[in-house]
């Protein structure tokens, strides 16, 4: 039987760059200890008070169908959080609750892209971006950023691909690079969107993890609120990755149509999950700071370790739970280096090529294990890279 081209071509064919991750997991299944610095999963669990709120809600009977747009208290809480952090007037009518940020990204592109439309995204990128664009029937168009710019996008590079495009997807704070887009960068992006009548889809799931500078939502820039869809999630800010609760914030008309889409696809999010998310947001920024504190601390550790050597370069780690390390001095690709490191020291990192061509010769390190093991693994990585460089002389 024939399957649709849309679903059979989601990955685009060829390697998806995740061979190192899969090899590490096979080693673990075979009983070989591996230090995993691969995926963005907190090493702390969801706070017990959030789980208690979830349990109280479920045991209290909130297990039936919940309102498809999201329960009103949660939509209002998200709107309040967005308005407080961005200064943009926002009400519950601007908010749709979704089953996580990934579902929100898919829905947003479904809302603005017709079949065959060009949808722009920036390289390096979160691994699912091109696939979700193909999944809605659009054509993914990557725009490479540059390591020498600390992966801050250049407006002229985006503009060169903007003619005939429908949307632009950005992510700040950025996964995988840790870059927080500057006001200058975002002003340039906004100008390109307005000049080319692009929808801007802004993935802001790491907005609570900013170590240097400030997070600016492009929805807050002049004349951008009516052409911007903001993606948010409880996953990173509140360590609720498995709960699958996120949102889209945008113009009321777009949200109304997205509610229709949700009615015919996901049919909402479990009520007891939403109640737990509402409780979590009510705890204020203190809880978000508690969740992000380990990554802030480990970033400082990493800066101290990397300052003591000359082989491994650090892309300025301004936000998110990752480090992007420049290994080009070894003359290896990111994938080659990662495989050699895994074989030699049982340390798993993600090749830069997993996230696009722009990060070739780099690796992404997730700061998601305890401080002592993280410091030891990073020192081992640096020593290993230095040994490769010396051996090649």
UniProtKB/TrEMBL annotation:
InterPro entries: Aminotransferase_I/II_large, AspAT/PAT-like, NHTrfase_class1_PyrdxlP-BS, PyrdxlP-dep_Trfase, PyrdxlP-dep_Trfase_major. Residues 34-380 form the Aminotransferase class I/classII large domain. The keyword Secreted does not apply. It catalyses: L-aspartate + 2-oxoglutarate = oxaloacetate + L-glutamate. SUPFAM superfamilies: PLP-dependent transferases. Pfam families: Aminotran_1_2. The keyword Thylakoid does not apply. Keywords: Aminotransferase, Pyridoxal phosphate, Transferase. Its EC number is 2.6.1.-. GO terms for molecular function: L-aspartate:2-oxoglutarate aminotransferase activity; pyridoxal phosphate binding. Its cofactor is pyridoxal 5'-phosphate. Signal peptide: none annotated. One of its GO terms (biological process) is amino acid metabolic process. Belongs to the class-I pyridoxal-phosphate-dependent aminotransferase family. PANTHER family: ASPARTATE AMINOTRANSFERASE. This is Aminotransferase.
């Amino acid at each position: 039987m024939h399957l649709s081209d849309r679903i059979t071509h989601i990955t685009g064919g060829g390697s998806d760059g995740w061979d190192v991750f899969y090899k590490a997991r096979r080693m673990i299944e075979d009983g070989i200890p591996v230090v995993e610095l691969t995926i963005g999963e907190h090493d702390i669990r969801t706070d017990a008070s959030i789980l208690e709120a979830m349990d109280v809600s479920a045991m209290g009977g909130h297990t039936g169908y919940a309102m498809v747009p999201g329960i009103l208290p949660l939509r209002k809480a998200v709107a309040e959080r967005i308005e407080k952090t961005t200064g943009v007037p926002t009400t519950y009518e601007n908010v749709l609750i979704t089953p996580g940020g990934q579902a929100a990204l898919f829905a947003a592109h479904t809302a603005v892209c017709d079949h065959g439309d060009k949808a722009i995204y920036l390289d390096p990128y979160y691994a699912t971006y091109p696939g979700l664009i193909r999944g809605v029937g659009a054509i993914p168009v990557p725009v490479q950023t540059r390591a020498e710019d600390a992966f801050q996008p250049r407006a002229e590079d985006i503009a060169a691909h903007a003619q005939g495009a429908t949307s632009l997807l950005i992510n700040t704070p950025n996964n995988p690079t840790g870059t927080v887009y500057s006001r200058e960068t975002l002003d340039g992006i906004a100008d390109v969107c307005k000049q080319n009548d692009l929808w801007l889809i802004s993935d802001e799931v790491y907005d609570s993890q900013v170590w240097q500078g400030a997070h600016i939502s492009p929805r807050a820039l002049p004349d951008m609120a009516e052409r911007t869809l903001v993606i948010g999630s409880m996953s990173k800010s509140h360590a609720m990755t498995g709960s699958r609760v996120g949102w889209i914030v945008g113009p009321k008309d777009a949200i109304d149509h997205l509610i229709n889409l949700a009615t015919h696809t996901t049919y909402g999010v479990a009520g007891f999950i939403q109640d737990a998310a509402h409780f979590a947001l009510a705890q204020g920024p203190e809880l978000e700071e508690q969740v992000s504190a380990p990554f802030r601390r480990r970033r400082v550790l990493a800066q101290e370790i990397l300052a003591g050597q000359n082989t491994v370069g650090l892309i300025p780690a301004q936000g998110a739970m990752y480090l992007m390390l420049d290994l080009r001095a070894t003359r290896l690709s990111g994938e080659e280096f990662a495989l050699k490191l895994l074989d030699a020291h049982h340390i798993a990192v993600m090749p830069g090529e997993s996230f696009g061509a722009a990060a070739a010769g780099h690796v992404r390190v997730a700061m998601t294990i305890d401080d002592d093991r993280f410091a030891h693994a990073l020192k081992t990585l640096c020593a290993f890279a230095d040994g490769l460089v010396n051996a090649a002389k």
